[in-house]
Amino acid sequence: MREKRWNIEVIIDEDEGRTRATARLHTADDTRLSGTGTARLNPVDRNVPEVGDELAVSRALSDLAHNLLECAAGDIEELTRKPVRLET
User: Fold this and answer.
1) pTM for the whole thing?
2) 39 and 80 Cβ atoms separated by less than 8 Å
3) Residue 30 in 3-state DSSP?
4) pLDDT tens for residues 6-20?
5) DSSP secondary-structure letter at 44?
């Protein structure tokens, strides 16, 4: 069995009550995909930066997962020459 290693880098930045996260996937065969997510502080809520980070990162990872699924569908279509619809 051969082990493969894929790495995900997450970058978070905050600006005026908004948090933006980018999740970047790097695979052994040089595939590069990314996903983004944002969170916004509601003015009536207490400012807890960790919560904004968690929301933005979870949304970025979800977007990355969707993009990876789309990539897999495209690869399958290329191999089979038939339309594919993958469900999550």
Assistant:
1) 0.89
2) no
3) coil
4) 999 999 999 988 999
5) T
